[in-house]
Structure formats: C-alpha cells, structure tokens
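SAMPLE LOG
Freezer: B-3
Tube label: C17
Construct: single chain, 158 aa
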Amino acid sequence: MVTSAGYELAAVAGAMACGVSLAFLYDLFRIKRKFVRTSTVFIHIEDILFWLIAAIIVFLASYIISGGETRLYFFLGILSGGLLYFILLSRIVTWALTGLVRAVLWPIGKILGLLAPVVRALLVKAGKLLEKIRDRAAIGVYRVGVDIRRFRNAMTKK
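STRUCTURE (predicted):
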C-alpha cells in the first residue's frame, strides 16, 4: 500500500474523473428523456439502470485507481467531480448533444413526413384487402359448415 501525497492526489483526481463520467452519463439519460417520452414505470427502470451502471463504474474506478481502497476522500472526489461538471460543463454538453441529436433526427423526420401519406394509403388498401380476405374466409367456413351438416344429415337418415 502506497501512502504518499502524490498517490492520494492521483486517487482524488481519478475519483473526480469518475464523478465527471457519472455526471455525463446522467446528462445522456436526461437528453434521452427530452426526445423520447417514457412512462413512469420505464423512468424508474432507467433510474435503476443508471444506478447499477454508476455502481459498477465506481467499483471499477476504485479498483483501478486505488486498488479497491475506498476512503472518504475518494467519495468526496467523485462528488466534487460531478458537481464541477454540473456547474461548468453540463449546460454546454447538453446543448451541444441536443443540437447534434436534432441535426441527426431532422432529416429522418422530414423523410418520414414525406412517406406518411404513402404509408397511410398502403395501410388503407391493405385493410380493405384484409377485409375481403376475412369475408371470403368466413363464407368458406360457412359453406364447409353447411356441407358438414348436410353430410351428417345424409348419414343419419334411413
């Protein structure tokens, strides 16, 4: 076990980097929630998923940085790294990533907007075709039922 001041400072710096990565991960979840509406149940599932991922990241960071030793300064480093990220970088990163997602989704939305009438027309025609198939199948089932009843009646007559 190394206990020099340089080692302790490196461990705190690593913990701060871990805190920054956790805060960035949380921003990714926030950006996802801006674009995709989810029900309350899925929000809770996402929160549990975030905390599981955060626990794994903290465990791995602790193991890699300080050989698995977790002391108070390690957790304070994670907390201060996350706070610094939220104070200094969160708005900029969120704005940039939101803009990037919008820039990627804009052409997709335009293409889907152009294709929507065509898809609607195809769905209407497919619905009418399915109605005809259903009606013909119902008539066929009715005819088979009538034939079976006629056959049964013919077999029971003496």
